[in-house]
Amino acid sequence: MTPRRFSPVLLLLAVLTACQPSYHLAQQAANRIQVDSTTATADPGMASFLQPYRQKLDQTMNAVLARSTGPIEKSQPNGPLNDILTDALLQQASQKYGKPIDVSHLNFGGIRNNLPAGNITIGSIYEVMPFDNKLVILTLTGDMLMQLLNHFAEGNKLVVGGLRATIHDGKVQSATLTNGRAIQPSETYTVAMSDYVAEGGDNAGFLKNPVKREDINYLIRDALIDYFRQRGQSGQPITPTTDGRITIE
Questions:
Q1: Strand partners, 175
Q2: Which CATH number does the domain housing residue 74 bear?
Q3: In sequence order, which ranges of the chain are alpha helices (DSSP H)?
Q4: Contact assessment for residue 140 and residue 189, using Cβ atoms and an 8 Å cutoff
Q5: Which terminal Cβ of the chain has fewer Cβ within 10 Å, N or C?
Q6: pLDDT category of residue 124 using cuts at 50, 70 and 90
Q7: Is residue 122 situated within a structural domain?
């Protein structure tokens, strides 16, 4: 019988593997360590390093875009903030798209703050819209548009521009574009909205298969900043109003 010949490398691996100790968890413990401005010690060197960046950021965020004669607040089913934000989105989306958009939509929960009376700054818009959601243009049939409206009408969370709607028991009874056209099931309409909702956010999964989707390289927040800057350049202050575009019966 011919004797077996073993590779020295394989022998070494076998020895090392056999010598490996085994471990098991004997116990575990956890401590809560609170870190805040009262317990953390400031690092003067780091503070000095960040100071120029902090000054630049403060200058940017404190830049005044426009002025308002009063607080601009969101509300259900209507609110001055609801109206001005969706109107702003509709205007800016149409400019970027190069042709009129029929409807604009914002999810109520995504509007995170109100706008103050007096100076409206870039920082104010960041507080209202802190997310980096992008503008998306969806082409929807009338049936799909009504599905969108009904989905957000439940709970009085419908925030739209470009149309008026009447709601009864959480269902849209009628919806008409601001140009007077009634929504027809088989016709198509363009809707400006955030990529979050277009991708099924807020349980709007039915929007994942539109007639057409066009992504615009434009943040919703930047659209709002541009709109309020334009309003400020007009020299006229903003007076908070709502046109009652959503009616609850």
A1: 165
A2: 3.90.780.10
A3: 8-18, 44-61, 80-97, 122-128, 142-153, 195-198, 220-233
A4: yes
A5: N
A6: very high
A7: yes
| 174 neighbors 168 (Cβ within 8 angstroms) | no
Distance CA 229, CA 206 (A): 35
Q: Is the model more confident about 135 or about 50?
A: 135
141: β partners? 188
Q: Would you state the pLDDT for residue 146? A: 97
CA distance linking residue 133 with residue 198, whole number of Å: 11
Examine residue 119 and state whether it is found in any structural domain, yes or no. yes
Kindly state whether residue 221 falls inside one of the protein's structural domains: yes
Contact 227, 235 (CB under 8 A): no
Long-range Cβ pairs for the range 38-42 (8 Å, 24+): none
Examine the pLDDT at 68 and tell me if it is beyond 80: yes
Place of tokens 């099931």: 185
Model's pTM, two decimal places? 0.81
Q: Structural domain tally of the chain?
A: 1
Residue type, 59: Q
- Decide: 210 and 142 in contact? Cβ < 8 Å: no
Q: Which residues lie below 8 Å from residue 108, measured CB to CB, with a gap of 6+?
A: 74, 76, 82, 152, 157, 158, 159
Mean pLDDT of 61-86: 97
Q: Amino acid letter at 73?
A: E
The torsion of the CA quartet 131, 137, 142, 146, rounded to 10 degrees, works out to: 0
